[in-house]
Design brief:
alpha+beta; Rossmann fold; Elongation Factor Tu (Ef-tu), domain 3; 14 helices; 31 strands
């Protein structure tokens, strides 16, 4: 066990984690030259297209130093705030972390948040200053920040360039010297933590685990502690670029297990694997259950695909444990699911993966957050969906979730960013100069205000230099109203939102204008209205397409034309009573991008 090292790479988005992982794999010859491609661990097309890591990826490398062979288990993690749950799971399976910091951008918000997570788990931190080969690298300045942040010596910071490979050998030496080997007793009862799983249509569910105590052999009878089900370990092995079968794995190792499990509910990330004959005393304290930040309804376009959508979501949940969903129904869209996401990017990625991996065509409703509704009978209900709101006469008040948001930016952009946060009902809590040019601003603001377009606006205001991280703090009383959108007097519940009273009028007005552009013209006038309870606050009309019935009347008495027009008017009126309006999918998506 003394020759095993388990470590992960943590950093802000786009600081060079995946490129560094590529170099480590090349240096240990884990990768053949012909298999090599940039971001080799990012296996999803979506990750490669967007240039971001969505899933954490585990891989094993062999490294030789001073005639001894070492086994290194690396987990490459995502850097975006929406995928921080992936990072927390990787950290639970490791003893050390490489903290990668971009020399051109310095320390950013997500770096700090991931670092604190690693320190809480007592991980050994190795700071790596990446991209030092670039002309605009601020090497000495960023080193000062790192020393302030971690309290390490300047000599401990490794200068490297993942692109050119400079300094990667130093990183290997630091990993072997500074990261402790796993502690565990191979003779004790088996205790292994599941930190990820994937669904394979031929083999069933493949669970990835880290062994803390004991050992596991092929053919052993094992059970998953929290669920209590028993299985035979048909195949076990380690994760390289492909899965390598092994007959036995012992404490400290990271591997996979296939036991022919077909139902996704039977594998839970954070569960403990142990032997049936000689079970361990207690389960490993895994990770806390994830708290979704944003809720949206996902409905199949074709109602017959409901069961298929459920299966697709269950398989996705295996691969992405931060996705939560419960069934719900809507008058306009039929049966679907209320899904919880960690943020808007997470929601977009899930929608895209459903389309690409499972060929599911879905409609997503307007995202919102969860509210606490205090009723007159003293009860408190949690509402995720405006249609689940009790009648106004029963409500005493509504509380909405607040977050503590940390923005790190250059001092030039402080003014515009403060204005943005104050416009979003934020209150300034703290402002700290990390250096002469970099400021950390802390705000308390409602979560609902950052759900839509806050991140995009922040990036454009700061020309991409601001980084943003947040965590939920508490619930506070809020003056919220339910804004309904009516088409020809019929409420479309998928477009309803809970919104602050001060913003309701402008939001309703913009929504009506946007829908007027998107709803195709019918044979009759379509009235689009925004309403707060029974009061209409905005209206737009999509004019009817009409046949020119007076074309054949040229000259003659005006009453002939009027008679024909009156007859057409009666027909249009009757049609409006029976005609229904289809809302196109673009309309649901456009609401998210209202500006």
């Amino acid at each position: 066990m003394k020759n095993i090292r388990n470590f992960c790479i943590i950093a802000h988005i786009d600081h060079g984690k995946s490129t560094l992982a590529d170099r480590l794999l090349q240096l240990t010859s884990t990768l053949d030259e012909r298999d090599y491609k940039d971001q080799v661990l990012d296996s999803m097309d979506l990750e490669r297209e967007r240039g971001i890591t969505i899933k954490s990826h585990a891989i094993q490398m062999q490294y030789e130093q001073d005639g001894e062979l070492y086994t290194l288990n690396l987990i490459d993690t995502p850097g975006h705030v929406d995928f921080s749950y992936e990072v927390s799971r990787s950290i639970a399976a490791c003893e050390g972390a490489l903290l990668v910091i971009d020399a051109t951008q310095g320390i950013q918000a997500q770096t700090i948040s991931n670092l604190y997570m690693a320190i809480e788990h007592d991980l050994e931190i190795i700071p790596v200053l990446n991209k030092i080969d670039l002309d605009n690298a601020m090497i000495e300045e960023v080193k000062d920040h790192i020393v302030e942040l971690i309290g390490c010596d300047r000599e401990d910071i490794i200068e490297a360039s993942a692109k050119t490979g400079y300094g990667v050998d130093k990183i290997f030496r630091a990993i072997l010297k500074r990261i402790p080997h796993p502690k565990g007793d191979p003779k004790a009862p088996l205790q292994a933590l599941i930190f990820d799983s994937i669904y394979n249509s031929f083999r069933g569910i493949i669970a990835y685990f880290r062994i803390f105590n004991g050992e596991i052999s092929k053919g052993d009878l094992v059970k998953f502690v929290n669920i209590g089900k028993k299985y035979e370990a048909d195949e076990i092995g380690v994760l390289k670029l492909a899965m390598i079968k092994k007959d036995k794995l012992s404490a400290g190792n990271v591997g996979y297990i296939i036991s022919g499990i077909k139902t996704s509910k039977e594998v839970k990330v954070g569960d403990t694997i142990t032997h049936v004959e000689n079970p361990c005393d207690k389960a490993i304290a895994g990770f806390e259950d994830v708290k979704p930040m944003v809720f949206a309804g996902i409905y199949p376009v074709d109602a017959d695909d409901y069961e298929e959508l459920r299966n697709s979501l269950e398989k996705l949940q295996l691969n992405d444990a931060s996705l939560t969903f419960i069934p719900e129904s809507s008058a306009a869209l039929g049966f679907g699911f209320r899904c919880g996401f960690l943020g808007l990017l997470h929601m977009e990625i899930i929608q895209e993966r459903l389309d690409r991996e499972y060929d599911m065509n879905v409609i997503t409703t307007v995202p919102n957050v969860s509210y606490h509704v205090h009723q007159k009978d003293g009860s408190i209900t949690e509402v995720h969906n405006p249609s689940g709101l009790p009648d106004q006469k029963y409500i005493v008040h509504i509380e909405e979730p607040y977050i503590i948001a940390q923005v790190i930016t250059k001092d030039d952009f402080v003014g515009p960013i403060m204005n943005l946060c104050i416009d979003k009902r934020g209150a300034l809590k703290n402002q700290v100069y990390l250096s002469s040019k970099r400021v950390e601003i802390t705000f308390e603001m409602p979560l609902a205000e950052i759900v839509f377009d806050f991140y995009d606006k922040l990036k454009s205001l700061s020309r991409g230099y601001a980084s943003f991280d947040y965590h939920q703090s508490s619930y506070k009383k809020a003056n919220l109203v339910k804004l309904d959108i009516l088409l020809n007097g019929e409420s479309v519940d998928a477009l309803s939102t809970l919104i602050h009273r001060d913003n309701a009028y402008t939001f309703g007005r913009r929504m009506c204008e946007k829908l007027k552009e998107l709803i195709p013209r019918q044979q009759f006038d379509v009235a689009i209205q925004a309403a707060i309870s029974s009061k209409i606050i905005a209206r737009e009309t999509v004019k009817a397409m009409r046949k020119d019935v007076t074309a054949k009347c040229y000259g003659g008495d005006i009453t002939r034309k009027r008679k024909l027009l009156e007859k057409q008017k009666k027909g249009k009126k009757r049609m409006r009573q029976v005609g229904n309006v289809e809302v196109p999918q673009q309309a649901f998506l456009a609401i998210l991008k209202l500006d």
